[in-house]
From TrEMBL:
Pfam families per record: TetR_C_1, TetR_N
Keyword Ribosomal protein: no
DNA-binding region: 57-76
Top-rank lineage group of the source organism: Bacteria
Organism whose genome encodes this protein: Geodermatophilus sabuli
Protein's recorded name: TetR/AcrR family transcriptional regulator
Amino acid sequence: MATEFTGTGDPARSMALLWRTPPGADSRPGPKTTLDVDRIVAAAVALADADGLSALSMRRVAAELGVAAMTLYTHVPGKGELLDLMLDAVLGELHPDERLLTAGPWRARLEALARANWDFFLRHPWALHVSTGRPPLGPGLMRKYELELRAVDGLGLPEVQMDLLVTLVNGFVRGTVGGVHEKAAAERVTGISEDQWWAATEPYVAQVFDAERFPTAARVGPVAGEELGAYDPRRSFEFGLARLLDGIGVLVDTGPAGLSAGGTPT
């Protein structure tokens, strides 16, 4: 699936719409319509959830709403601004229980952060294909950023390191959760399951794991394959998250405040 980019629309229009302050929105003459930005965004998100970003267009969203495409443009100027609104809207779903990120030991807070983002990308797989080099600076994104910074607040770390830690955990989640959708896509495109694919390659295992050419792979691969079976993104996530938090613990332990792994002063 091709990558879409936020920030491709008119920045001023996007910002006004994100914060629901479009100039002159309430002063248009004529009868008022029941269609509004929130309904348009909700329909666009539902469409992307069901059919992916490739199905997203102003015309398709209009059809889902039962209105003419031009009607949408009186509320949202184009697809670029719509994508900004969509992403900010779904980001606003994250962390409904704010206490999970603001109370308790730092490790539990970061684990909650990671798991919430993992679940988010499972609900909205299209968000994995949205590049936020120019992030939509709306209330949904800013609330997410605020709460996730609080998860590492009070550890005695400099502000830059707080930001980098949040970015690190989010990047890890984004990288691992992609495996879930890749597995599903591979089965959908090829028409065979992963087990069927591995069974078809079985006659070539001895050649693939040639102990003379690939001694380390030949030693590790069969053992890992027997224990782990097919690639499991969830298992990779669990293992990687634990190791990532272990590493962050080293930073916390050696940080300026000399904190313990539990996030309390030593």
